[in-house]
Amino acid sequence: MMHEHIEALRQRFLHSGDDADLPIVDAHHHFWDLERNYHPWLRDVPRIPFRYGDYEAICHDFLPDDYFARAGNHRIVKTVMMEGEWDPRDPTGEARWATALHQRTGLPSAMAAQIWLDRDDVTDVLAAYRDLPLVRSVRHKPATVPRAAHRRDFSAPGSMRSEGWRRGYALLEASGLMFELQAPWWHFEEAAELARDFPRTRIVVNHTGLPADRSDEALAAWRRALDALARHPNVWLKISGIGEQGAAWSVARNGPVVRDAIACFGTARCLFASNFPVDSLVVTLDDLFTGFKTIVAGCTREERLALFYDNACALYRI
Description:
Blueprint: H1 2-16, E1 23-29, H2 40-43, H3 64-68, E2 75-82, H4 93-105, E3 110-114, H5 122-130, E4 135-139, H6 163-169, H7 172-175, E5 178-181, H8 188-197, E6 203-205, H9 216-230, E7 235-239, H10 251-265, E8 270-272, H11 285-295, H12 301-316
Parallel strand pairs: 1-2, 2-3, 3-4, 4-5, 5-6, 6-7, 7-8
Helix pairs in contact: 8-9, 9-10, 10-11
């Protein structure tokens, strides 16, 4: 019945073009229960340095009821939960917890799970995920450096060019899992090498490549990096996580970023996501999806449906 309801909503949007009818898959968000589970960055003090600054406001439970209390009137019908840096001593624990949450509440609809590609347990972790069908992809944030310190031959331990990391990455094809890449855009030459060398493994770029520096020079370089990575057809782009420390999220500031990202990857390989509750530090969930809708209002109905719903459903098989 749920599938029939969503398909009716989808067809109604295609007929009406009314954003009130637009079904949404939130392709990147978190759930966590800090009373029961250990996420070191959310539980331990002192807090770690963070790109949005002080994040004390998100260091509390965030579960499906908390999510929908913030969603306004948006038709969010499915979600993809991203790993939330759960205790690395138990890399599969979060996926098991999310599976139980899905069984109780129906959410998340799919998830990206924790992995450590250069650890000895990588084969065992991938084997465990075969028994957890909610898991569609995995994330291991590779080693990165600030832009000023980056060199084109960067290959530090734990980076996308390091031998152990690539050895683990090579196992993803046989597992059938995608890879979620969270790295700043100046590391995208390394990501392009992965896409080239492992063409049957899909890469899903998180947070639009993290264009935090909004200077003209930095944005031009970010666009060039996106363009180069987009040449590889096995790479997709999540438009999310584009807030700025100390600045309220706005269509005026983020509209050009979103439109440039879509120009690079096309409406067939981009998908919108909230990064909640993390991005609640810079925007409400209601205003975020309203802003995304405003930014792409000039797209066709089919393109808008792809960005908000169809692409995520296809990519995450939900």
